[in-house]
Automatic annotation (TrEMBL):
Name of the protein in question: Short-chain dehydrogenase
Feature: compositional bias, Polar residues: 11-23
A Pfam cross-reference name: adh_short
Region (Disordered): 1-40
Ranges of residues in domain Ketoreductase: 39-215
CC terms in the record's Gene Ontology section: membrane
This protein's record includes keyword Lipid metabolism: no
Any one Gene Ontology molecular-function term assigned to this protein's record: oxidoreductase activity
């Protein structure tokens, strides 16, 4: 995966931009669901996989001024050209990249109505043999980069009094997956962050959605170093995740599993952890 430098400026879309500082309470509704009616949206991890499909879905819905971020500049430009979006290639794990991206988004759109944080990497294998660099990369990309970006963007959304943050998690964060210990840990932390942040943002007009897919048919598995080999469940197409993202945005949902039945293992683990662990040890 390539590492582009922090954004130096926008590309693909041209024309004048305006900068505005939102005033507290200026948002149209205090329920966090203005994002369902369009506005400025930022999608990270948009150069391929889930992020790219989410960008296309938002473009198809209409009414969105899209800003796309990813680490592969060439692929990102291709996706941006397809959906008439502003492409901002950047590695968000680099210090200060979150603040620069925030400035560009606000300069471009004047405000931010929707963040879809879908950037993520993985690694498959026994934790005892996992290279330290891969541990740092997964925690950096899947967790810390998202936290830093949300921290940079959030004050502007709260000041505007509306907006929605959509975090793309994983069922691995709900139940833990053998051979993906660090990925599971990072996604579990992201799930806890989504819950805690949602509590903090009550009555601010900013909502938080957590979309939790299982295996998805994207290049993710090739890049993690091992293909998906389970006979069941089969990977779902990324369009189903994009549908779930749109449902969360449109209806203001807190949590959406993809497919929906994946909520059951998480419920069993919570209600009967001993039973779940015995079943997971045997079948997982």
């Amino acid at each position: 995966m390539s590492h582009a430098p922090p954004p130096a400026g926008p590309s693909n879309r041209t024309g004048p931009v305006t900068t505005s500082v939102p005033q507290p309470g200026s948002g149209p509704r205090p329920d966090g669901n203005r994002a369902g009616r369009g506005g400025t949206a930022l999608v990270t991890g948009a150069s391929s996989g889930i992020g790219a499909v989410v960008a296309r879905r938002l473009a198809a819905e209409g009414g969105w001024r899209l800003v796309l971020n990813g680490r592969d500049a060439t692929r990102l430009e291709q996706v941006a050209a397809q959906v008439d979006a502003l492409a901002v290639p950047a590695d968000l794990t680099r210090p200060g990249a979150d603040r620069l991206l925030t400035e560009l988004v606000l300069d471009h759109g004047g405000r931010l109505d929707l963040l879809v944080a879908s950037a993520g990497v993985g690694w498959a294998g026994d934790f005892a043999t996992m290279p330290q660099a891969r541990i740092d990369e997964i925690v950096g990309v899947d967790l810390l980069a998202t936290l830093h970006l949300v921290r940079a963007l959030l004050p502007h959304m709260v000041a505007a009094g509306s907006g929605r943050i959509v975090l793309i998690g994983s069922v691995a964060g709900s139940v833990g997956v053998r051979g993906e210990a660090v990925y599971s840990a990072a996604k579990a932390a992201l799930a806890a962050f989504a819950d805690a942040l949602r509590y903090e943002l009550r009555h601010t007009g900013v909502g938080v959605s957590h979309v939790i897919p299982g295996a998805v048919d994207t290049p993710f598995f090739e890049r993690r170093g091992a293909p998906y080999s389970r006979a069941w469940p089969r990977p779902v197409p990324p369009e189903r995740v994009a549908d779930a993202v749109w449902t969360a945005v449109r209806d203001g949902k807190d949590e959406v599993y993809v497919p929906g039945w994946l909520r059951c293992p998480a419920l069993v683990r919570g209600a009967a952890p001993g039973l779940y662990r015995r079943l997971a040890a045997r079948f997982g």
